[in-house]
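Example: Glucosyltransferase domain-containing protein.
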Amino acid sequence: MKKTTTGLFLDTAFAAALFIKVFSAGFSYFCVLDDYVQYGCYPLYDNLSRVYFGIGTASNRPLAAFFDPAVWGAFFPNMVFALLILCALLFLSAKLFDRCFTMCGIAVTPFFYAVYLLLPLGFEGTYWISASSRIVVGLFFTALTVYLLITYIKERKAWQLLLYAVCSLASFGFYESVTVLSGLVQGLIILKFTFDEKQYKRLWLLAIPALCTAAVLVYYKLAAHIGALGSRAAEFSVTHIGARLGELFSQFGYIFTAGLYRTTAAGFLDGLKILMQNGVFGIVISILILCVSVLCAYAGGKYKLFAEAKLCVPLGLLLIVLPLLPNILVPDVWLTYRSIVVCLPGFCVLFAPLLALAFQNRCAKTAALFLLTSVFLVGCVNEVHTYKAVSELDGQIVNEVLQHLDDEVLAGKKETVLVLSQEVITPQTSFYKDHVKSVFYADWAVTGAVRACARNIKIKTITPVYSLENVDTEGKQVLYMDEFYHVTEETNE
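Written out as structure tokens, the predicted fold is:
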């Protein structure tokens, strides 16, 4: 009873921390970039087969592609409810992963929760719905798959085997790195329990992740040329693997040095400034962060940590490195902050022996958990306010663009050129690739945002440029944006 109560206390504390993490700027979700296209535009099509097979979203991450207009798009523009569901799935995946780790002899429960749920570096992959709808949902199915696998091995019930097989296949349909993680963990779990208990007949279970892998590979091969997006899957190549591998580790190193510093340390300082500048609301959020950090530390301090280095070090390295390898199969290696969320369980496994050794003392453990939770949450305050600033500025400019679009543009009879006086940018702690970028950096993004806000899929391409030099404007509406982000139909020059 005492153990159950302690577990419930810890769950409640970290669930509250997760809620504060995503809603420290109010009970809202702030759309950016692909959100407008995937959830604002795709559901506008009368026939979703045009999205899946005409545009070609079905050629990549098939289950994620299906969910975009059919599930998550149903919430637009009230995406905050989609975010709530994804937060619940993230928390459930943490619970399932933790239980699986414990059953395998690795127990770092409170530190795993803190890193997996709250690390600011992983904010992009767990908040931005365009990313979290792939990563978080995929991780949930992976965790559920592994949990069902272990329970089947222990209890041998047919329904567990059936659900395990179904969830295994589902976990392969959202995100390539999650696909690798899922297959890898399943294989390792099967081998561990087979050889630990000398039940070699269990090796047949390896056929399930193997068949799922084969099914996904065949699907990608067959779907490689579906629609406009099909070429993305068709670009997989094993040439220049060495150079790409070097680039992968270079980007990985940058993310876990400069990226980690900017989102966590510098993000913490900027988060404090934001809290101090937000009056009563900032004070309320500060008090909530302080209280929930105390609760997480107090509840987590009661947990005993244990792990074996000979198991955790090689396993952790495998879980960190192998899920990233799909990135080297495409011509341009593109590792982002969201990419590393899939690696977080591996990092917790890798450092489990060190944590177990360093925090045997309850006071030290409690202090460390308080520090981690509070720093991470304040860093996430900075992240969510960055999304808020970018989303609100984009929304302001998009509304001005909409006010100036003529009837022919709204009817889908001609395109638009938007002449920018400067890059649309908001101050933020960490500029890295497409981390919280404005929609006005690319034609597909601004077009998607305008279509979504107008609820009009007929609007043709809106192209942002900095100069009309070498730009064909014949038959197109030309709009101008000044240095104050105001849009007009005439230039001020």
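The chain has a mean pLDDT of 91.
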